[in-house]
Amino acid sequence: MEASVAYAHPEVLVSTEWVAGHLTDPGIRLIEVDVDTTAYDSGHIAGAVGWNWQSQLNDPVRRDIPDKKAFAKLLSDAGVTPKTTVVLYGDNNNWFAAFAFWLLQLYGHASAKLMNGGRAKWVAEGRLLVTERSAVRATTYPVPKKQNAAIRAKRPEVEQALKAKKTA
Questions:
Q1: Cα three-residue angle 117-151-110, rounded to 5 degrees
Q2: Mean pLDDT of the chain
Q3: For domain 10-167, which CATH number applies: 3.40.250.10, 3.40.50.300, 3.90.360.10, 3.40.50.1580?
Q4: Is the pTM of this model over 0.85?
Q5: Taking the domains of the chain in order of start, what are their residue ranges?
Q6: Do the Cβ atoms of 115 and 19 come closer than 8 Å?
Q7: Which residues contact 92 (CB under 8 A, 6 or more apart)?
Q8: Beta carbons of 119 and 90 less than 8 angstroms apart
Q9: Alpha helix (H) ranges present in the chain?
Q10: What is the distance between the alpha carbons of residues 136 and 64, in angstroms, rounded to a whole number?
Q11: What is the C-alpha to C-alpha distance for residues 28 and 25, in angstroms, rounded to an integer?
């Protein structure tokens, strides 16, 4: 018997079955983001684009997330438009897929989902992985106007909150 798990936001999860049924849907873009940056090349879901968390989701000079122009280019190169539903998945319990999901939320992309169970569940179910890189037609994703400050706190904000808590 499978344990019942309640999620805070079940609306952002899609099943492997749902993904399998939408592999050719032009309004869906699958994106794999793995801890193991070689995993995509060893096999991925047909049609998926691979993002490298080290080089594409991280600015090595600033040691921060990509700025809004780099983010727009990343989405453009992945063939994403503002109307595209982005479905993310990866290894290690969707660790970096969830980070990419947060980036999409931070920069205001309207529709992003996580494949429940990630790569491990897809493979455990015996579903097909391919090694050919997915052919994607680039788009021109608009540069986001701002970040959603409500879902990101930087060090000074955390320090201020901690000081306020100590004096309360």
A1: 65
A2: 92
A3: 3.40.250.10
A4: yes
A5: 10-167
A6: yes
A7: 34, 35, 36, 118
A8: yes
A9: 16-21, 39-42, 68-77, 95-106, 118-124, 155-167
A10: 27
A11: 6
